[in-house]
Amino acid sequence: MNTPAVSEHRLLRAGEHEAPDPTENSLREAFALLRPRLRPPFSLRTSTPSDYHQLVLAIVYGALTAPPRTARTHLVHLHAVVTDGYDLFTRTVLRLSLESYPRLLQPARAQLLWVISELIGADAVGVDRLVVSLLRWVRIGDFSQPNLWLAEGLLRVLCVRWDWLLEEPSVLTSALFLYLRLLADHYRLASDQKVEALKELEIDFCVRVVRQHFDFCMGMGRDLVRLLQDVAFIPEFRDVWKDLLFEPRVFGVPGYSDIWQLYRTRTPVQYFLLGITPEMETRMRFLFTHVKLGNQRRYQEWFARKFLCRPECETVVVDLVRFICCAHHPPNEILRSNIIPRWAVIGWLLKSCRKNYFAANAKLALFYDWLFFDDKVDSIMNIEPAILLMLHSVPEYVGFTQELMEFLFLLIDHYDVDRKDLIAQGVLKSFDMVVRKGVVQSLDLLSTCSLISPLLKERFNVFIHGSKPEAVRDLYLSSDVKTLGGPKKSASCEKTGFSHVKGLVDHLRATMTQAGSNNLQTLGRLLVTFAKLDKQAIDKELGGNSSTI
């Protein structure tokens, strides 16, 4: 059997003016040097460790660049001579995956998936890290054919190697994390034949893992709930979501009886790396290590052109925010320097979201750890960016501060109504911790700033201090409409007030449409007026025209 000439097969795509890749060069040189030894019959003896090292590098190159039939011959050779549990071979392929996957030519990518499957079958040392490295190259928000091909091909390998996967819980849960995240985006795509088969694979895989191996899934922590919530609208997940909320014992995990146990479990850092590619991680960490505040614009523009250039790429903002909050914690010397802080980059990312759905999910990603914060298990660094973003946005971007405060209160009231009190306690602990640990001097700016809506400041003071003026007491006791009437009034007052309800609602709709950036203040004035049910004040708010309602 003739081994193809080295010049006929390349490993990496190279630009016209790019320097040769040192890893590819070392592999190609080893292959050229040992090519006569790579043809059957093989010599099974290696005289020195250096000789073994060169032989393995040559086999890596042959396995990834040769046609499939010849590549199988190279793997047979490897099985015959291996002395280190495939450690060197796996580490070499891992380095290629982490550093060079985007430049791998398509034939080499196809061979890489096959090599990984073969290494799993051989129970190779370190193959778990190799699988996870490839999971990271499946890009969120990228619906191009090469990306969908990688997502589907890797998932098929994992399904074929199911028994091995069950012996590697960290790989199993990493795959679950990624494919739940992908599924939320893929299912919202218009019907497309190239995505349909992948969606079915993702659904079957994720439901199977959650239903049959929930004991492994619990180690994923609270972000598992966030991901499952995002796919709960998919028919196959509706029962899973209902059981998670109301019948947790059906998952058969001893001691697991309530979703709050997942909420209280902090998600390990390694899962947040799955939402962004290694290249994204490198660029982000460079930004937080070397770029000074005020000089970040050109770096952010480059990042946006590279990774956020298409509308569908907005979805990855959620994963970037979770990575920044939970996986990148700068050391004290960086925190004390003039390097761009995390809150500034998160503010830029949130502002880059043009669709409300993505913006809401990104804000949830920012505040998620606030809802369940426990200083015994959670890091203050996870909640630091949100409070600093709210405070530093005043006064220039006070509307953004109000937007974030309003969203946080919406989460408290509506994220999980049955556990609203526990969530409120988590948020209170977060506010308390950022002051006690000196992240901020005080919260006075949020409670006294004249630029912030009076209604929102009042809600904040009510939440932090627990006291409220009588006029709005019942407005804040509950989000239910039944409490808006406040203390019991006389029959005449009740009749007069409620006779204007329909008109107030109609006027509110029209006013909110016209109010633009002042909509929050307008809403505040009208809601307080409505809470008081004061005819004279209604006349004043509506310009003396309430008689026409």
UniProtKB/TrEMBL annotation:
InterPro entries: INTS3 (IPR045334), INTS3_N (IPR019333). Residues 1-23 are annotated as: Disordered. It holds the Pfam family Ints3_N. It comes from the Eukaryota. Signal peptide: none annotated. Residues 7-20 have a biased composition (Basic and acidic residues). GO terms for cellular component: cytoplasm. Residues 51-459 form the Integrator complex subunit 3 N-terminal domain. PANTHER family: INTEGRATOR COMPLEX SUBUNIT 3 (PTHR13587:SF7). This is Integrator complex subunit 3 N-terminal domain-containing protein. The lineage of its organism: Eukaryota, Viridiplantae, Streptophyta, Embryophyta, Tracheophyta.
